[in-house]
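Support request from a user on the community tier.

User writes: "When I paste my C-alpha cells into the form, the page sometimes reloads and wipes my input. The last time it worked, I copied everything first. Here is what I submitted, just in case something in the input itself triggers the reload:"
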C-alpha cells in the first residue's frame, strides 16, 4: 500500500500545549490515574464559570442562531466590539473593520494567510504562543523570532527586533499581556514598537486576549491606541477574561491607515466569506460580555482567586533550588527557568514526559513555546490552591531526585 504522508507545510508546525505529553497524560487517565493539569489555560474545568448573564443570553438567542450570520458577524456583537475599541482609545474603527471568529485562533490564521506569500517573514516573540509560529508557517511564511529578555522582565529586546528586519519582513506580532511569561508591556515600549513598524512599513498584529487579566493595579494599553497611521490588527476573545473558552467567540479589529491596505483587507474579506461565518451562539455572548458586569476584576484584585493562586504558585516554585521566575503581572501563566548548572537537560520534552510519568503532573516544556534552550517551562496556575500545593510539591520532589542523580 502506498504510504500517505502529511503535508510538508506541517514540517515547522508545533503545538506542544496539546502535544505528545498530553497524549501520554490521556493514556494514563484511561488507565485510571488522576493527572493534575498545569499545561493549558482552560478555565472551566477548574471551576471558573462563564458569567451567568452570558450563558442566559446565549440560551435566549438559540432560536435565532440556527442560520448563518453575516460573514463578519452579527450586528449587535460587532457594534459592541466597536464601542469597546472606543473605550480603549483606538480611533477610526467602523463596523466594517470588526470581524468575529471562532475564537481569536481562527482569526490569527485568517490574518496570516491573507498577509504572507511564500518566503515572507513575520517577526514573532520568543517565547511565543505557538499558534502564531504555526500559523505563519502554514501560511507559507517564515517565522523569525525576536528575543524577549528575561533579565528585563521578559520585555522585547528592540535591538534584536531591529536586527531581524529584512526586505521580506511583513509585520510584527506583539503578544501583550504575554503568554507564556505573564509580562505586561509599558506604554513607552509599545510606542517604540509602533515607531519601528512605521519606519519600515510593517503591519502590527496585536494579540491582546489577556487585556483584563491584570494584577497589582497594572494597566493595559492597546497598542492600536498609540497610532492612527500604522496598520494594526488587534485580536481578542471571550475565552479568558470571561471564562468562555468553549464558546469560541473572538474578534479581530483593523485600525490605522487602511488606504494602502485595501488589497490586504480584500484578502481578509475573501477568507472571511469562505468560512461562511463564526459560531453564531457564541456571537450572541459578546454584546452582554463587553457591556455587562466585569467579574474578572474580582478574580484578579486583592483577595481574588486568580491573584491568590498566582502568588502561591510563584512562592512555591521559586522556593525550589535552582528554579527562578519573573513574577507575572498579567495572564494565567508563569515561565520559570531551570538553572542549567543544576538541571543539565538535553531534551526538555522528554524531561517533562518523565516528570509526568513519575508525578502525574502535566506541564509544557519551554521549547514548546519556541524558546531556543531546554531550560524553561510554563506553569498554568488555574487549579485550586490545594491542588497547586500538591502539584508543585510533586515537582519539587522530582527535581530534588534529579539533582541527586546528577550530583548537582
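"...and here is what came back when it finally went through:"
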Amino acid at each position: 500500500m502506498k504510504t500517505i504522508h502529511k503535508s510538508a507545510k506541517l514540517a515547522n508546525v508545533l503545538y506542544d500545549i496539546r502535544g505528545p505529553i498530553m497524549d501520554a497524560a490521556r493514556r494514563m487517565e484511561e488507565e485510571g490515574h488522576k493527572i493534575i493539569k498545569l499545561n493549558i489555560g482552560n478555565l472551566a474545568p477548574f471551576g471558573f464559570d462563564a458569567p451567568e448573564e452570558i450563558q442566559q443570553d446565549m440560551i435566549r438567542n438559540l432560536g435565532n442562531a440556527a442560520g448563518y450570520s453575516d460573514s463578519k458577524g452579527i450586528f449587535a456583537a460587532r457594534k459592541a466590539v466597536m464601542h469597546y475599541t472606543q473605550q480603549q482609545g483606538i480611533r477610526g474603527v467602523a463596523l466594517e473593520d470588526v470581524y468575529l471568529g471562532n475564537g481569536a485562533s481562527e482569526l490569527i490564521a485568517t490574518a496570516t494567510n491573507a498577509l504572507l506569500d511564500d518566503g515572507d517573514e513575520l517577526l514573532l516573540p520568543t517565547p511565543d504562543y505557538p499558534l502564531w509560529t504555526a500559523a505563519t508557517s502554514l501560511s507559507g511564511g517564515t517565522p523569525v523570532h525576536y528575543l524577549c529578555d528575561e533579565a528585563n522582565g521578559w520585555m522585547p529586546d528592540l535591538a534584536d527586533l531591529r536586527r531581524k528586519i529584512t526586505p521580506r519582513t511583513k509585520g510584527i506580532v506583539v503578544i501583550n499581556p504575554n503568554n507564556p511569561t505573564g509580562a505586561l508591556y509599558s506604554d513607552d515600549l509599545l510606542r517604540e514598537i509602533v515607531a519601528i513598524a512605521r519606519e519600515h512599513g510593517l503591519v502590527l498584529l496585536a494579540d491582546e486576549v489577556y487585556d483584563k487579566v491584570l494584577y497589582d493595579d497594572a494597566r493595559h494599553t492597546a497598542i492600536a491606541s498609540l497610532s492612527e497611521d500604522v496598520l494594526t490588527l488587534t485580536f481578542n476573545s471571550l475565552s479568558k477574561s470571561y471564562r468562555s473558552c468553549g464558546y469560541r467567540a473572538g474578534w479581530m479589529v483593523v485600525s490605522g491607515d487602511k488606504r494602502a491596505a485595501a488589497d490586504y483587507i480584500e484578502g481578509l474579506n475573501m477568507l472571511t466569506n469562505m468560512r461562511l461565518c463564526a459560531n453564531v451562539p457564541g456571537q450572541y455572548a459578546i454584546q452582554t460580555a463587553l457591556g455587562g458586569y466585569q467579574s474578572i476584576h474580582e478574580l484578579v484584585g486583592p483577595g481574588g482567586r486568580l491573584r491568590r493562586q498566582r502568588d502561591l504558585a510563584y512562592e512555591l516554585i521559586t522556593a525550589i533550588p535552582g528554579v527562578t521566575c519573573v513574577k507575572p503581572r498579567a495572564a494565567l501563566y508563569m515561565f520559570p527557568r531551570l538553572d542549567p548548572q543544576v538541571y543539565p537537560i538535553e531534551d526538555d520534552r522528554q524531561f517533562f514526559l518523565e516528570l509526568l510519568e513519575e508525578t502525574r503532573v502535566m506541564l509544557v516544556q519551554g521549547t514548546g513555546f519556541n524558546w531556543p534552550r531546554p531550560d524553561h517551562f510554563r506553569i498554568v496556575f488555574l487549579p485550586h490552591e490545594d491542588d497547586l500545593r500538591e502539584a508543585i510539591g510533586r515537582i519539587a520532589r522530582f527535581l530534588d531526585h534529579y539533582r541527586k542523580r546528577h550530583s548537582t
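Agent notes: The reload is a front-end session timeout and is unrelated to the input. The longest helix spans residues 385-405. The longest strand covers residues 142-149. Escalated to web team.
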